[in-house]
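Dig into this one:

. . .
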Amino acid sequence: MLLAKYNMNSILTRASRRLRETVRFGRRNNLLFAQQGQGRWFSTSSNEMEILRNIGISAHIDSGKTTLTERILFYTGRIADVHEVRGKDGVGAKMDSMELEREKGITIQSAATYVKWNDINVNIIDTPGHIDFTIEVERALRVLDGAILVLCSVGGVQSQSITVDKQMKRYNVPRIAFINKLDRVGASPFKVITQLRDVLRLNAAPVQIPIGLEGDHKGCVDIIRKKALYFEGEKGVDIREDEIPSGLENMVEEKRLELVEALADVDDDIAEAYLEDGEDGISEELMVKAIRRQTIARTFVPVFMGSAFKNKGVQAVLDGVRDYLPNPKEVENFALDQSKDEEETLLKSESKEKFVGLAFKLEKGRYGQLTYLRVYQGSLKKGQVIKMGGTNKTVKLPRIVRMHANEMEDVAEVGSGEIVAMFGVECSSGTTFCDPSLDLTMTSIHVPEAVMSLAIKPKSTKDNDTFSKALNRFMFEDPTLRVEVDAETDETLISGMGELHLDIYCQRLEREYNCPVEVGRPKVSYRETLTSRADFSYLHKKQSGGSGQYGRVIGYLEPLPEDSKVSFEFANEMIGNAIPPEFIPAIEKGFKEALEEGKP
């Protein structure tokens, strides 16, 4: 009987866990709601594309990007429970699937996932915050339609925030901002907004104000709707709306006027309504539409606030993604028509059009190459024949998957605007794929130059083949990693974006390939030159058995004139055949080799 009871409890526990993985319950406006977490559809029609968002989450390191993504996955039902970075609970954040990421508590590789929030589908790419892995941010923003710029309420706009801002502007990516960590000592969200304006030159204004800061942070006030939002219940699942707390009314009015004025500077409808009837003439609907228009036009940045770690404000950010960031049809993307001398062609985000897509990230695994792809035009089906743009090479697509961090799910077809991955297609990063009847290419990804180098070699010579294989794979996946052999010192040099960047690859060599390495500073080939004539007379004697070796060389070295067109001149002033003429070329070659190696 006890055994039967135990089995029944086990069954109920597993059933409950499974239910929780697929359905997320919560309470909003005192009404119970449930959301399907796993179920979503792929865009195949215009209506479905309008409810699609492709967003990235970017910020300076340690601003809370991965923590925010973890809460988004939880509130949308994609994961059953919340886990923290560094894997302190033995699990770790879902998007940090690499062992090194969980150990160090940082994101090293960008990771893709997909969620459903209310009536929209969202493809999300969580990107690293460390400057050493900036290529991951670069190639993610190249294919995204919108972004969330996360900022620490204490640190504000930091060095990588500036880099990310430049990348967003390079690829014309609209963004909303989320000021995170309002629970930290020293939190100052309005100071951060001032930095957004002064440092990044953004027309930014808050759409929320916090209810308390540091240890007293309880929620936020929506200044558009003039409602207080409290995130209660287990892990902030229940959202309670209430009246504005006493003492915050004046601040709400002040910040709402600030929001209206920022919008009036760039939006004619808001400016007209404000001039005619003042702030009272601007309705909630009019303001939301204006924020959406100007966010998509990249002339305005709405600012949200909260604390992802304390489960406050995340659902409001998701509502902001729905209300203010564009769907694929609202973003213009261009390709170059190679058959018309690279004439610029506007791509149509319609699934009925001919297919065009861009490969933006590659991974080499045990099952072959995994290629991340953004579909810009047309649809993509399993078994479809597609062409590499700019070439006549065609490939038949064997497998399409959608990614959830390091997990994969096979799909038969995807429509325009989607982000998926392909198996079994060999290509390089930045390759354009299109219908065989087209000859289009898209602009590739900006790759920054390497900033430092290290000398590296395997500790054991028996690992040379594994060492070369691993470095070739890493170079293929990461365009910012360069490997070369110094012709003078014969050292293998790896170059990258910084010390951490190179250290991670050294650790991966040992962990993934069981190939420990020795690293050090590259050797420097010092050069010397002559300043005046030098005479020499050298006697060579060596007895190694037999007749031995004996020889004398007499001559002089002197610098060539500064305007000389040659760097080396060998003069033979021998008279007669005291030295056989066939030996002279060997002597000249010896001098050249000595010059190359810097030996006298």
Observations:
- The chain has 14 helices and 32 strands.
